[in-house]
Amino acid sequence: MDSFVLLLSRIQFGLEAGLHFIFPPTTLGLAFFILLVESAYFFTKKEDYKKLSNFAIRLLTLVFALGVATGLPLPFAFGMNWAEFSKHAGAYFGVQLAVEATVAFTLESVFIGVLFFGRDKMKPLWYWLSAVFVFLGSHVSALIIIMANSWMQTPAGVHLDAASGKLIVDSFWAVNFNPSTGIRFLHTITGAWMIASFLLVASAAWYFKHEKELPLAKRLMTWAGTIALITAIAMPILGHESALFVEQYQPAKSAAMEGIYQSSESAPLYFFGWVDEQKKKVDGFAVPGLLSWFYNYGAKPFKVAGMDELAAGGTPIPPINAIFQSFRLMVLTGTTALGVILLGMIFFWRDTLIRKKKSLTVMIWTAVLPYVAILSGWFTAEVGRQPFLIYPFDNYPGMTVQQALTQNQPEANLWFSLICFNLVYVIIYIVFFRFLPKLIRAGITSHSEGGLA
Q: Is pLDDT of 448 > 60?
């Protein structure tokens, strides 16, 4: 099989998924914020909450529309580039994509339209219920996708039919609620709420810096800043729980993330460094024994499986340095975001933030960090299971990326689709970076969008 065709297929899908992945978490977080402030408005009738909700709805409409546009090529890529995977696992994976598109996504998209156009055309109860349905639709959609992706990481509830070479579903409950679904859903959703709340915090900081709509900006900072702080604190806790699952079910990924070659009950935790894959060592700063302590909360020594032992037992080892660095990038950006929001909210609660122009500038640009963190975390999770697309379990040997590739794929097809799709993505991102700042600069009480008051 042509390795260059495989490389092009991976590049195409990686770019499409990565460029799309910016939008769904923002949608989830904005839907959560809208539900909160719309509920506050429904029960208190305070106009400030209505204005905050309308502001977030305008942002959500832009993000959702561009998210749909960037997501459309992904099913095409499955059929074009990964036909063997589709044939092998279509009995489960195809059902998930169909349910997500026809149920959850439809629910979300219909009621976003109601939120955008229906403020003065509906009774308050029905409008509030529309916010509920947008929240439910977006989060059920995320749950279905995370179920499917988690199943590829920790398969369960299926068996391999030797005659057809296909996976047969034995239990949809076991498939959907496989071992890693719960923690990965909580980790991803919390990250999504964090992303949107930091975007809203950045908006409030911009209003502070330019002394624009200060009463509403303070209200926005109170709500969004509180969500940002809570989620930023929760993320490392949930991340640690996720790491425990990785160590249990995908020890090769875990060892690569931490740069552990030799199995040890006193495995070090590297805060930063560089993996020398030829010499099988990490040059960097580490605390001896801290990783083993973290894995077992200090209760007793925990033996961390090293890559040498795993490789000797026949376990394939993923790209080590790429995962080691991307994992640390996730931790670094997430920790930095936590530090910034913590200090920023302390200044805000002391009523001194508005005078700290440099701090406000930092808070504005910090909105980028959660995006970097979630993308680097996604990269770690997906590259870390290589060479497998579906990880092995029980008597199932797994399915590698190479096995999943479409047979006899012409290279010209890949070049054509890769260039065309990415030209479209360039246009989409030009629109995004052109109109998102414009919506924010227009102000919280802007009347320019769809009749929202």
A: no
